[in-house]
UniProtKB/TrEMBL annotation:
GO terms for biological process, alphabetical: lipopolysaccharide transport
UniProt key word Transmembrane: yes
Species in which this protein is naturally found: Deinococcus aquiradiocola
Transmembrane regions: 20-44, 64-83, 103-122, 277-296, 302-321, 333-352
Entry protein name: Permease
GO cellular component, one term: ATP-binding cassette (ABC) transporter complex
Pfam families according to UniProt: LptF_LptG (PF03739)
Listed PANTHER family: SLR0882 PROTEIN-RELATED (PTHR33529), YJGP_YJGQ FAMILY PERMEASE (PTHR33529:SF6)
Keywords: Cell membrane, Membrane, Transmembrane, Transmembrane helix
Source domain of life: Bacteria
């Protein structure tokens, strides 16, 4: 029997691996089909060359692959364990003195390897692919990418308050265009649809200005209005999903230094950074939760149903927490780790039952 106890965990690993590879391929095919269904019409309409189509799909592959590597873990464990349960191999193992949870030990190392790859892929490879993907579409549409922008800008200087709905500037330029400008100086309010920020001269210049004085009556301002503005023109924060992990950390530190009170942008960046650390540990949480659940299923039908419920429950939780973090309902760190914590708790409860 000692020989059986040593060989059985490796036998279980060999049973799981083919299901895992099949699950990765299945989920990758499903997601790629979804991408093609949403883009193939535009690719044909704009007569995109085949080489560019393949490049676009290649840019999407890292993001799709990360999700497939994680979701294939419960898929493989539950279906493989369902087959072993159907053939009464678990009962035979337990009759031979093998503790059920011992069968999960050889699965931990592959889960760590998958998590390590997912961490690198999510932090470095995927953001570069996403940036190329979105920029490539401007080439498909024969358009130039829009300049980087900062939305809902606000700054106070003495008794003057400056705000703009959007600030757009070149990455290394000293001029920025302003959209939806509002300046309050004492009892006077200036508003304009557009303006220009000159970072070298430290001024805001607006045309078509409307002035509202202390009497509350709006009046048009003759000519252009130039006001001093001492704030520093910063490079706009890029989209978190298109920014590598080191750059994302630097952006978050800069925002935290400028704005001690966290706003929605800071919470979004903090959540993205926390998720990139938490998601690589999801395969380990799945090994415990799905593995313990798989040891309890009695046949393949229960295993197939468990796969659907398991993945659906995780996806609902995983897709809900970002909005909770951005709204401030949960801290970004807790929101990122919440799906893992829930499934670790589920796995611990099931493991207690298997003692």
């Amino acid at each position: 029997m000692p020989g059986v106890r040593q060989k059985l965990p490796l036998y279980v690993l060999k049973e799981v691996v083919p299901w895992y590879l099949g699950g990765v391929l299945l989920f990758l095919t499903l997601q790629m089909t979804d991408v093609l269904s949403s883009t193939v019409g535009r690719l044909i309409t704009y007569r995109v060359p085949l080489a560019q189509v393949l490049a676009l799909l290649g840019d999407q592959m890292p993001a799709l692959l990360n999700r497939c590597l994680v979701l294939a873990v419960p898929f493989a464990l539950l279906l493989a364990f369902g087959r072993l349960a159907k053939d009464s191999e678990f009962k035979a193992a337990m009759a031979g003195g093998v503790r059920p949870l011992r069968l999960l030990l050889p699965l931990l190392v592959p889960a760590l390897l998958v998590g390590g790859f997912a961490y690198y892929n999510a932090g470095w490879v995927t953001p570069a692919g996403q940036e190329r993907w979105w920029n490539a579409w401007y080439g498909v549409f024969n358009q130039a990418p829009p300049p980087p922008s900062t939305d809902r800008y606000a700054f106070a200087q003495g008794d003057t308050f400056y705000s703009a709905g959007r600030v757009q500037n070149d990455r290394n330029g000293v001029l920025a265009s302003l959209v939806g400008v509002l300046v309050i100086r004492g009892d006077t309010v200036y508003s304009a649809a557009n303006g220009v920020w000159d970072a070298l001269a430290h001024t805001w210049t607006m045309g078509g200005v409307t002035v509202v004085g202390p009497d509350g009556v709006p009046r048009p301002y003759a000519g252009e209005l130039t006001l001093p503005q001492r704030d520093v023109l910063q490079r706009p924060v890029s989209r978190p999903d298109q920014t590598g992990t080191p750059q994302l950390r630097a952006q978050l530190r800069q925002l935290q230094a400028e704005r001690p009170l966290p706003d929605e942008t800071q919470r979004s960046l903090a959540f993205e950074l926390s998720r990139r650390v938490a998601d690589p540990f999801t395969p380990l949480a799945f090994v415990l939760a799905a593995g313990a659940l798989g040891l309890l299923v009695s046949n393949r039908a229960w295993a197939a149903g468990s796969v659907i419920l398991f993945i659906f429950g995780f996806y609902v939780l995983w897709s809900t927490v970002p909005s909770l973090a951005q709204a401030g309902a949960l801290s970004p760190t807790l929101a990122a780790w919440l799906p893992n914590l829930v499934f670790v708790a589920l796995g611990a409860a099931l493991a207690w039952r298997l003692r």
